[in-house]
Design goal:
alpha/beta; Alkaline Phosphatase, subunit A; 10 helices
């Protein structure tokens, strides 16, 4: 605890201090709370990660690994892609055109069939642990690559909150844009300051005078908790520094996807689809220097009428994902941007009595591409009816190692968890998938 006898630094004052000066940053504080970038190294060659997260567990047997003619295959037909011999769902024609840039891993095997546990596993590479809160893939990437001077947050989630930073701390938490069709309200100055940047700067100078004195006061404290409180106070100051910087800068314009022309909006399906808007925003964000972006497309928990639902959902996924890959390639960002498509798990090859598919982590597909990852191929295979892995089984750890390698990050790099123990950023005993990087 803070020393209650120290002038002006009792617990009540500390809370009043945070609450009182929070009001001074109004808009920007909410935007970047917990998101100040303090990565240990500068971003390497503008590398970025985009995660397309299929919340609910997508039926990959109906998308990437069809089984036509089998009882497990359903009614969907495969179509050819730009890669000879590689076929995907008939409802994914735009992605089929981009298949030369992508790789399908059809032999992923995981261990968690529960939504929450599967989500944690696929975001962190590790099974949930009551003692250690592991950082997500986006937070790890931001920690490794985000430069200190980036005004925008290093990790942004679109459509729904992404998994958090775990023991890395709130400096690497994702900022969530729930409605990608509108710029976040929190990055705008208060109405009475909208046309007066001078007032923003004056508030900033006043705020820092108070904050610096506060941090210096904590530094003079003794006791075991000194470093902890000093770190928290410094992080608080840095968070608001990013807030003021963003409110007073032009970087907030990146969120306005409506500035894109009609042709681009239509290519992504962004006129009607929030996922399309999210993918377009993801492209704009990585162009602006954001390190990690996660775009959520929910609604995949298809225990009933699975294929009927896919007929409606897949065109939305196809248009946005296909346009995103095409855009990144054409604009010269594909070589520096790694994309990964995944969810909590796959769904059962067997179609249940409700025409649905249930949870199935035993064997399913993910898609990767970009950066140093070699596209235009399929890794691994399931057996004839999709109930087991035939060739090249891979773990989520292997997937993480591949993504890190694709970004130019060594998967064996170590960080320390909240108990002070060394931990590799990709799970131990995992290896980048051969042939992909």
């Amino acid at each position: 605890m803070l020393n209650a006898g120290y002038p002006m630094l009792n617990r009540r004052h500390f809370l009043k201090h945070l609450a009182g000066y929070s009001a001074m940053a109004v808009a920007g504080s909410q935007f970047v709370q917990g998101l100040v970038s303090a990565a240990p190294k500068l971003k390497k060659n503008n590398k970025s990660l985009i995660i397309l997260w299929m919340s609910g567990g997508p039926p990959t047997i109906d998308i990437w690994d069809l089984k036509p003619g089998q009882a497990t295959g359903g009614d969907f037909k495969p179509i050819k892609t730009t890669v000879p011999g590689v076929e995907i769902s008939e409802y994914m024609p735009e992605v089929a055109k981009q298949m030369k840039h992508l790789a399908i891993v059809r032999s992923l095997s995981t261990t968690e069939g529960d939504h929450n546990r599967g989500r944690v596993l696929m975001h962190t590479g590790r099974v949930p642990n009551p003692i250690v809160s592991y950082p997500s893939l986006g937070s790890l990437t931001s920690f490794q690559l985000t430069p200190k001077d980036l005004v925008l947050p290093g990790f942004i989630s679109i459509g729904a909150p992404a998994d958090g930073p775990g023991f890395l701390g709130m400096n690497y938490a994702p900022f969530t844009v729930r409605n990608p069709g509108q710029p976040p309200e929190n990055i705008r100055p208060p109405m009475d300051m909208a046309d007066d940047k001078g007032r923003v700067y004056r508030r900033e100078r006043l705020f820092y005078g108070v904050e610096d004195n506060f941090v210096d006061s904590i530094d003079r404290l003794g006791g075991h908790g000194k470093k902890k409180h000093a770190d928290a106070a410094t992080a608080h100051r840095d968070i608001y520094h990013k807030a003021f910087s963003l409110v007073a800068s032009k970087e907030g314009d990146v969120f306005n996807v409506n500035k894109e022309n009609r042709k681009t909006l239509d290519a992504y399906g962004a006129i009607r689809s929030n996922f399309g808007k999210g993918c377009l925003l993801a492209r704009r964000l990585v162009e602006a220097g954001v390190t990690a972006v996660e775009v959520d497309l929910g609604g995949w928990d298809l225990h009933q009428n699975c294929q009927a639902a896919c007929k409606n959902k897949l065109p939305e996924l196809d248009k946005a994902m296909g346009a995103l890959v095409d855009d990144l390639v054409r604009r010269g960002h594909w070589k520096n941007t790694v994309l990964v498509w995944m969810g909590e798990f796959g769904r059962t090859p067997r179609i249940n009595q409700n025409a649905g598919r249930d949870h199935w982590p035993r064997c399913w597909s993910v898609v990767v591409g970009g950066g140093a990852i070699k596209g235009g191929q399929v890794i691994g295979a399931t057996d004839t009816d999709g109930t087991g892995i035939k060739d090249e089984p891979h773990t989520v750890g292997d997937l993480f190692a591949t993504v890190f390698k694709g970004l130019g990050i060594e998967p064996t790099q170590q960080i320390r968890d909240n108990l002070g123990r060394p931990l590799t950023i990709a799970p131990e005993h995992s290896e980048a998938i051969k042939g992909l990087v």
